[in-house]
């Protein structure tokens, strides 16, 4: 897949911009089948009662003509969604970003930098070729080495991927726990040798075909290892030039479903039904840890406790975000996150020598100077400005004189690189293992505040080197350390918005990297 492949030529002359095509009812053979299997995302098929599945009359998705369907290089939300229909992965991430086996059958930890994997038997590509270890190795090496791959950073910790017989060997540059590695391997797998095909050869539940009338459709893959798909026997693909075109098509009823990633995007008009699904995109406040009094961990933690994240998620993000006091999708039992607590924040500030010494309503630091804060952000993003204004209002009411400064992107970057800031609003697309090393480790390329802590370094090292039995304890220790140190102030994790004009199918239960999770049991809404 050295060049991005498109199917634009297939669309020439096709009149697909009208009403949704009908006739997606399942065939009699499909309707009458007594049993089958469904790929649940855990790697183990389960029984399916086909009689409970009612096919939809029609279903339509967008295809971005300017992007292509290369699963490693496509960047539009529309084509990423189609990629999830056509390709499977070694692991899928559930709603808490916990890895679940899909194509992988087993993982053996040889050391913190060496792992052996095997793959499931009986998996076939759309071409009929059997899935082999060589296909997995080829896919992973393309994903981590190709310049146009969107998975390069995610897989940058891998030094080599090889196979021998039925086993796949992965060596890492840096230590990773088993769970962390599994989370990183949510990469589309394709058949080696299909890189020059118009559409790479995947093993997903649907494959792309051209109909006699010139239209482009996704049809069920009859040899899919997950079983017989009865939801729809032909999904229409509507061509668009950009995401705005997809929003317009949904508004006119020509799309069945639309996925929007950026919380800054306005929800599509005409969408009567919506759902959200988590992402690894974290919003946070970066801190200049060389600046007094921000060099004091009690001050940083107090500032975190003055962030009303739940209100921010509901108002500034209109529910399209999850409040996040720690860099985790799910807080383990035994870990105390710095929740919104003004009284506790005042106590921590006083412990750091910050309180209203002269009863003028403002807090002073040691030496008598007023505690003043400036927070910079890229003024291009209105949501960030709204978050900071709400946060600044709280801080000012507490006696911390806070000023929000909107800047052009270039000026923001210049100030960060020179350390000329106190706090900044950051947005970070974390890799799927939710690793924050680039921001909080000593040599991290995003550690603009020069944060250094031997305690945090040790906690990170223990987490990355943890065996399966040690992982839960190491993870709790890491998050507890983060809560005490507060090297940055997490705000929220963004959520993708899924919109539909008609109700979502029965059984619709999207996961972060697989909106079609449980597709085998989807059924029309009666």
TrEMBL record:
Keywords: Signal, Transport. PROSITE patterns: PROKAR_LIPOPROTEIN. Residues 1-25 form the signal peptide. InterPro entries: Peptide/Ni-bd (IPR030678), SBP_5 (IPR039424), SBP_5_dom (IPR000914). CDD domains: PBP2_NikA_DppA_OppA_like. Residues 100-427 form the Solute-binding protein family domain. It comes from the Bacteria. The keyword Transport applies. It holds the Pfam family SBP_bac_5. Belongs to the bacterial solute-binding protein 5 family. This is ABC transporter substrate-binding protein. It comes from Butyricicoccus intestinisimiae.
């Amino acid at each position: 897949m050295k060049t991005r492949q498109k199917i634009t030529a297939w669309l020439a002359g096709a009149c697909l911009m009208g009403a949704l095509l009908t006739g997606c009812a399942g065939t009699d053979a499909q309707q009458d089948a007594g049993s089958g299997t469904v790929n649940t995302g855990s790697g183990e098929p389960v029984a399916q009662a086909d009689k409970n599945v009612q096919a939809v009359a029609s279903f339509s998705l967008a295809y971005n003509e300017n992007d292509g369907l290369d699963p490693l290089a496509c960047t539009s939300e529309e084509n990423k969604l189609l990629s999830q229909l056509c390709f499977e992965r070694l692991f899928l991430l559930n709603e808490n970003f916990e890895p679940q086996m899909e194509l992988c059958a087993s993982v053996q930890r040889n050391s913190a930098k060496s792992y052996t994997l095997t793959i499931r038997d009986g998996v076939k590509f759309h071409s009929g070729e059997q899935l082999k270890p060589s296909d997995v190795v080829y896919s992973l090496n393309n994903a981590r080495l190709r310049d146009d791959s969107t998975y390069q950073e995610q897989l940058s910790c891998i030094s080599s991927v090889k196979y021998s017989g039925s086993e796949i060997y992965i060596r890492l540059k840096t230590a990773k726990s088993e769970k962390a590695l599994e989370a990183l391997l949510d990469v589309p797998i394709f058949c080696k040798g299909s890189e020059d095909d118009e559409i790479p050869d995947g093993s997903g539940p649907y494959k792309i075909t051209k109909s006699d009338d010139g239209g482009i459709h996704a049809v069920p893959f009859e040899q899919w290892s997950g079983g017989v798909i009865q939801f729809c026997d032909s999904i229409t693909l509507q061509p668009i030039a950009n995401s705005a075109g997809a929003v317009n098509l949904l508004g006119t009823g020509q799309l069945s479903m639309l996925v929007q990633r950026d919380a800054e995007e306005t929800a599509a008009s005409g969408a009567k039904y919506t759902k959200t699904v988590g992402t690894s995109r974290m919003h946070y406040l970066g801190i200049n840890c060389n600046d007094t009094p921000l060099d004091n961990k009690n001050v940083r933690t107090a500032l975190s406790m003055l962030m009303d994240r739940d209100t921010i998620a509901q108002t500034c993000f209109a529910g399209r975000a999850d409040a996040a006091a720690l860099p985790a999708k799910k807080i383990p039992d035994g870990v105390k996150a710095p929740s919104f607590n003004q009284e506790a924040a005042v106590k921590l500030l006083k412990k750091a020598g910050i309180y209203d010494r002269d009863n003028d309503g403002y807090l002073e630091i040691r030496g008598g100077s007023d505690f003043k804060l400036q927070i910079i952000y890229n003024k291009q993003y209105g949501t960030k400005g709204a978050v900071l204004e709400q946060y600044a209002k709280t801080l000012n009411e507490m006696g911390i004189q806070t000023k929000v400064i909107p800047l052009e992107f270039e000026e923001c970057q210049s100030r960060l690189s020179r350390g000329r800031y106190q706090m900044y609003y950051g947005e970070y697309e974390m890799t799927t293992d939710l690793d924050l090393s680039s921001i909080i480790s000593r040599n991290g390329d995003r550690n603009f505040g020069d944060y250094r802590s031997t305690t945090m370094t040790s906690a990170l090292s223990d987490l990355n080197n943890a065996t399966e039995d040690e992982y839960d304890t190491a993870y709790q220790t890491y998050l507890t350390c983060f809560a005490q140190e507060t090297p940055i102030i997490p705000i929220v994790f963004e959520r993708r918005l899924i919109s539909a004009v008609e109700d979502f199918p029965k059984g619709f239960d999207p996961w972060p990297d697989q909106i079609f999770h449980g597709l085998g049991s989807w059924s029309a809404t009666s």
